[in-house]
Amino acid sequence: MDIAKKIEKAMKMEREELRKEFKYYLRSQEIAESTVQTRSTDSFYIWKNVSKDDFWRIIESENFEIEAKDLLYETLSKKSKGDADSLTNGYLSHLRKLREFIFSDDFMLDDVNNEEYIKKFLLDIDCLDALSEWTNKFNLFDILKITRTEIRHSNMLGWLLSPSENHGLGDKILKGFVQYIVENFLNDKDVLSILMKDFYSFEIQREWRNIDIIAKSDKENLVLCIENKIGTSEHDNQLDRYREIIESTYSRYTKIYIYLSPEGEESSSPIFWHRMSYQNVLEIIEKSVKNVELLPEANLLINNYIEIIRRDIVEDQKLADICKKIYYKHQKALELIMKNKPDEISEVADIIKNWVNKKKNVIKYDKIDTKNLIRFRTPEMDNIIPESEEPNSGWKTKNHYFYEITITGKDILNCCIKFVLNSQKCSSEQKEIFEKINELYPVKKTKDDWDYRCHFTTSTFKIETKEINEEKIHEKLDKELQEIFAFQQDFMSKIKI
């Protein structure tokens, strides 16, 4: 692309859009993040403080150095309290870098050039070797897919807290939990007596009256209540309800309430529920296993658990720094990968596209799709709704209608087909047909300046993401298509053009 075309395209961009592209470029140069932020902000000083037109006039100027310096000095002298000479030199160096970027081969504005970002990433794929310390390890919790499953963490903690279990740590974990509370929250005459308890006398209960973990000792008259939250939050005044249950059931016991969360968030009832983070749990476990010779099986399980806490719940600073460095260097490529990564909706969308292609004898597939929408037309409706001479619809097509197969939901997906009209730049003939359609199949709410209207929707069918079956989805779509054909037949029998 020549310089003139680069400038022409760049001038159509919003400031933040161009700034974002510039930041991609700066990060790919492995420049310090503080420099990236400063340079990507200061280089737009003229645009922000003078005008967009003056900014582009300076960028295009053959006397860039002189004109940019003069305008920056003039503006900074009026708007800044600092030394205009030194400030001008700094702003000029940043603007010069932006100009070099716009004129360079690294300034890519066409989607096709996204391939270049992926290519650069693949050529530098060795940068991922720094992650091998985390990615090449066997971890039981990864295999079982329970790294962020709250109930599984509660089960693991319940096992570790129990002095009578076969993990080989005795009462170390339970004592560690109690010591954490005593040292950080309690300040009364009972502290010493709590620390002197026989922790081997404690019994662990899971999900008793819906409470995540209870550690109680009838001998020591002490009950420890833990509410564990990972990826969820409180609901239905549950902490107050749980405390009422504990207070009434263990009225004569000393009671300790712990609200456990990844970041150690404060609960809705901080007077009673003491906050605790998974970083605190990690420190307790690591201290407890130190200098203890565990059985191989227990050692593997506990060390795997420590790894997933550090990696998936508590931020591992070393890992975070490595990931940040890789991300900044190949930000554009990684965002493109994430944008196009396969998921349940993408899998179902591909199945639906296969179905649409198989039906090409009765429907027309234009491939005007999004992630959640697959669009098609029919010959019958094409005969009724004429096309425009130019691709001026909201979809940038000549036709102003589509049948849209929609996919919504998460764990259970909902799927149906909608008949949608678009009025953008429609002709008087098209508009007349649209109003007749609205008379026959009125929408609940309509206005004169509408853009999109849906006049017919098939029944909705559900897709279990845990068990995606192509054959069943195609069968259900066949039924939906029959509803479409019935709608069209009814429509054609009523409309008179």
What does this structure look like?
By secondary structure, this protein is α+β, with helices and mostly antiparallel strands. The chain folds into 3 domains: 3-107; 146-292, no CATH class; 344-494, no CATH class. It is built from 22 helices and 11 strands. The strands form 2 sheets. Strands 6, 7, 8, 9, 10 and 11 form a 6-stranded antiparallel β-sheet that branches. A 5-stranded mixed β-sheet has the order 1-2-3-4-5, with helices on both faces.
Please describe the structure with a list of short key phrases separated by commas or semicolons.
single chain; 497 residues; alpha+beta; 3 domains; six-stranded antiparallel β-sheet; five-stranded mixed β-sheet; 11 strands; 51% helix; extended
SSE arrangement:
Blueprint (H helix, E strand, L loop, with lengths): L2 H8 L4 H14 L4 H10 L2 H5 L2 H9 L3 H16 L4 H20 L10 H10 L8 H4 L4 H4 L6 H12 L10 H13 L6 H5 L7 E6 L2 E7 L4 E7 L9 H12 L4 E8 L11 E5 H12 L6 H18 L3 H13 L1 H9 L4 H15 L5 E2 L7 E5 L1 H6 L16 E9 L2 E11 L5 H13 L11 E6 L3 E4 L5 H25 L3
Helix pairs in contact: 2-3, 3-7, 6-7, 8-18, 12-15, 15-16, 19-22
